[in-house]
Amino acid sequence: MELLYGKPVREKIFALIEDKIKSGISFNAYLIYNPSCIEASIYKNQIEKLLTKLNIPNFDCSISDYNQAKKAIQKANSDPLGMIFVSRPLSIENENELIEDINPNKDPDMLTSSNLGKLTKGNLNYLSGTSQAVRQIIDFYNISLQGKKVLVLGRSISVGLPIFLMTLKKNALASIVHSKISLEDISKQVRESEVIILATGKRGLVKKEDVNLNQIIIDCGYHEDSAGDLGFLPEAKMFTPVPKGVGPVTIASLILNAFFLIENSKK
Question: 177 φ, ψ to 5°?
Fold first, then answer.
């Protein structure tokens, strides 16, 4: 089995980011999160750590309710150099409504309807952080999806759905399942697929006996026990380990997205 490590992919992205910084491109990062959500706080801290390492100004925007989140978004929108990094879930009401308040040109996780719409038209520059990381890994390791049976587990607008749209753009014979589909049907789909991408944040959807040595498995999940959605080491052709797989590439991809939005807004 070949392990698809994220570190060399991340280093390649870092080189692109450093070139953009050297060219004089800059932005101010507004990190919006709810500290009551441990998962979101960890993600925010990871983003903050990399931004600080790159000497990119960043501002801690801790929120606990809708009004605080709205004010934080408005402040960032009003900053000509502002970029808005939302660590989800915010665990507040009307979260999707808040996302739509973000200026699409300041939305590096590509959560707004405007940016998601551009992705549905086939522009892979508008992939979210995690889905962009999956794309970068696939490209780095020269994995062709052309005509392959690809199964995406998960349908969220921030991970599963963008990954599915990306695989379609890469001409895969793509299918998507989720936690509301029966385990029996999911097992059937897993057995028949050549590439399996886990992006539900839930375990137990893929069984060890349904995986085979000819499959490629990409695991986007991360749980408190430092393992992914799969929950076991598969006997597969290729596999992204957790940790050290998709995770290290996600934050780098998110920051690369920010630079793309800056450059694109100037055209």
Answer: -130, 170
Instruction: Please write the tens of the pLDDT for every residue from 57-101.
Output: 999 999 999 999 999 999 999 999 999 999 998 999 999 999 999
Contact 199, 250 (CB under 8 A): no
Half-sphere exposure of 206 (CA within 13 A, CB side): 35
3-state DSSP assignment of residue 99: helix
Q: State yes or no: cis peptide before 8, omega within 30 of 0.
A: no
Using DSSP, state whether 12 is helix, strand or coil: helix
Q: Determine the angle formed by the axes of helices 7-22 and 129-140, rounding to 10 degrees.
A: 110
Tokens of 109: 């996780």
**Where are the alpha helices (H) located in 24-93, listed in sequence order?**
38-53, 66-78
Alpha carbon distance 256, 51 (integer Å): 11
